[in-house]
Amino acid sequence: MNASNLAIEINNLSYAYSKGDAVHDLTIQVPRGKCYGLFGRNGAGKTTTMKCLLNLLRPRGGSVRVFGLDPNKAEVEVKSKLAYVPDAVAFYPWMSVRETLDYLASFRSHWNRDTEGDLLKRFRLDASQKTGGLSKGQKTQVALIAAICPEPELLLLDEPTSGLDPIVRREFIETVIGAYQEGDPGNRTIFVSTHLITEFEGLIDEFTIMDAGRAVLTLGADQARERYQKIRARFAQAAPANEFKGAMHTRRNGRELELIVNGEGPRILAELRSLSPESLTSEALTLEEVFVATLK
Amino acid sequence: MTDDGVMMLQINFKSGKPVYLQVVDQIKSAAASGALRVGEPLPSIRPLAEELRVNRNTIAKAYGELESQGVIETLPGKGCFLKANHSPLKKDARHKLLIEEIDQAVVQAHHLQVPRGEFIELVRERLDTLDDKKRAHDNQKSD
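Predict the joint structure of the above. Result:
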């Protein structure tokens, strides 16, 4: 892929805090205009990866590029093109929401006041309230407003919805789709790390599953749901003890058999049919189920 | 259509079908059943994407596909509308598209051991159901 079409290019990235690599030989390419998910359990290396993109950490090995630029050499330019919403948002507690947004806007060459007004209203935030008195959800909402108003080309979201209630989560996602993506259709890029995969399911174009600092699976979301299937068969007698070649996981329970398969669905379904089951069904795995099946 | 003008679509991530194709197929069946009529506007991309919580680009891709298939048309500044005679495809091409779907159902019927007569009876029943739905929509409109 042409490098100029890439919003993020991570090549063989490694980083270590003390002993053992937090990120090891990670390679990810995020095309412009896509929503890319970085999935992993706590401690998988997602935040470390984000911090390397933001020049908060310097890679020990490999390289990162944001719109072709090295965040270490062109920090100002890189940061002008992106906005970041971290997991734990911290503001000066003595500033009001209004003052906080003005303060953050002062670092930006561009700030959409209309969007700011719309979102304050949508989130029912009181601009005169001190940020010290805001709930975690409200702080995240202020951080999201601050991230969207500069209309950046790239939005980095690091576990943005963990610890939030379902309503706030829902509004968060809707805002990313509506207020952010709609601003420049087809060109706005999102890079989101999360272990709450279900709520981002519809947003994700492509994803990488990380485990212990390494990429274990990179795939398109539609592709993943097409390839990974859960097959259930019920037999008149005890389920056959056959080994099903290509099945990732097999579970037997009396007359029932459940298989998780990756790309071998049609062949295994045919094999099962030849054993004349009473019933045979298959369904796609959701991205969260793909995540679990991959790391189990 | 619901009160806020967003059509009732359901995305099922367990179907294994690409999300944009689910939108395409559901809008086509809304058109076939009369839930969506010629000249009626489709929901705009943004509210529909927000409602379904799917990527905006997915809805845009679905609408692009519907437009290239001649099902809908985009009027600049007004939005997308269901087209009259929304099948510009030649009869052969239409049949070919349908045959693929029928073949899948036929294969499935075979595996479920549904005999030929029963299968054909089911198809008749489904056609009748769709006609009924269409009639119900027509009546609603005239009320």
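The first strand of chain A starts at residue 6 and ends at 16.
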